[in-house]
Amino acid sequence: MPVTAVAPANIAFIKYWGLADRALGVPANQSLSMTLSRCVSRCTVDTIKGPDEVWWHEDGRARPADPVFAARVVEHLDRLRAFAEVDVSMRIITTNSFPTAAGIASSASGFAALTLAALTRVDAAVDPGRLSILARKSGSGSAARSVLGGYVLWPEDSEDPASAATTFLPREHWALSDVIAVVDSGPKATSSREGHFRASTSPHFGRRVELLGERLQRVRTALRERDFATLAEAVEEEMYEMQAIATTSRPPLRYWRPGTLRVLERIEALRASGVPVCATTDAGPNVHALCPDDAVTAVAAALSDDCETIIIDKVGAGPALSSEHLGM
Ligand code: PMV
């Protein structure tokens, strides 16, 4: 019987950007994110005879996945098989509910879903901590956070960058939304993987790491106290700093597009008019406008003219198994 897992993307308030150890794929700093609920990956796994198969499901049908992506999936399957001590081939069929590789954490949700579905299929014991560490090893660090719901801190132990993610606060604590202004839905030119490698070549990277502890503390306190103004200030500080590191890396990386700046200006004007909203971006041009749930209508209306599409998402519960399997 196939097993299907659905896992959400997440949006980081404090970013994972840069590695402490390239070989181990462990982050240079602690990050904190909000798990989403509508931007999800669905992954169906079954065991088969013959070699592994990787399929991409779109518009109601499956076709062979892009070879680079398929190779990454098989590499991760090898890791999962070694962990579970099994030797079986698998068929993977996967899809996303949102644009792939456009800075909306599609690899985080995709590898979290694959890890959960494959381990469940081979009856391996999967507690969230183990799932987080294995998902991180896929090469998408932020997948380590997509295995949990609510507001998630990773790594949980500031002294151990290889430790798992942990729930910082449950989603019931604060109903925040993420209005995603998709200004460019095409795949990005440079992967976040390359961005992580280059981060330490920025002359400002060391200083960033020094300053991050205090900023993370401010975000934690703002979340705990549901203090949106403090959260907004820290989240935007973090967005600009991550982009500053990217643009001063050698060679430089620029993820923003002209449309990104137009949306950022809109968000600034909206906030000045009294709407509680702030912006963050990842390794891509799209803007995540964060706001309390009751501001969503105003935020979406203000941003819709300046982007291709708006995706309205909110804090979510984390991954789950599903009986709706993807078929060939
Ligand atoms: O998960 P990765 O390796 O693709 O890196 C994600 C990096 C950012 O999305 C830019 C920041 C983050 O913490 O999610």
Task: Summarize the helices and strands and which ones pair or pack.
Blueprint: E1 3-14, E2 19-21, E3 26-27, E4 31-48, E5 53-58, E6 61-64, H1 67-84, E7 89-96, H2 106-121, H3 128-136, E8 151-154, E9 166-169, E10 176-182, H4 192-199, H5 205-225, H6 228-247, H7 258-272, E11 278-281, E12 287-292, H8 296-303, E13 309-314, E14 320-322
Parallel strand pairs: 5-7
Antiparallel strand pairs: 1-4, 1-14, 2-3, 4-7, 4-8, 5-6, 8-9, 10-12, 10-13, 11-12
Helix pairs in contact: 1-2, 2-3, 5-6
Provide a short characterization of the protein structure.
By secondary structure, the chain is an alpha+beta fold. 35% of the residues lie in helices and 27% in strands. β2 and β3 form a beta hairpin.
Note the main attributes of this structure.
27% strand, 8-stranded mixed sheet, 14 strands, Ribosomal Protein S5, domain 2, alpha+beta, 328 residues, Alpha-Beta Plaits, single chain, binds (3R)-3-hydroxy-3-methyl-5-(phosphonooxy)pentanoic acid
What does this protein look like?
The protein is an alpha+beta fold. The protein is 35% helix and 27% strand. It has eight helices and 14 strands. The chain has helices at 67-84, 106-121, 128-136, 192-199, 205-225, 228-247, 258-272, 296-303, and strands spanning 3-14, 19-21, 26-27, 31-48, 53-58, 61-64, 89-96, 151-154, 166-169, 176-182, 278-281, 287-292, 309-314, 320-322. Strands 1, 4, 5, 6, 7, 8, 9 and 14 form an eight-stranded mixed β-sheet that branches. Strand 2 (19-21) and strand 3 form a beta hairpin. Helix 5 runs antiparallel to helix 6. The longest helix is centred in the middle third of the chain and has 21 residues, at 205-225. (3R)-3-hydroxy-3-methyl-5-(phosphonooxy)pentanoic acid (PMV) binds next to helix 2 and helix 4.
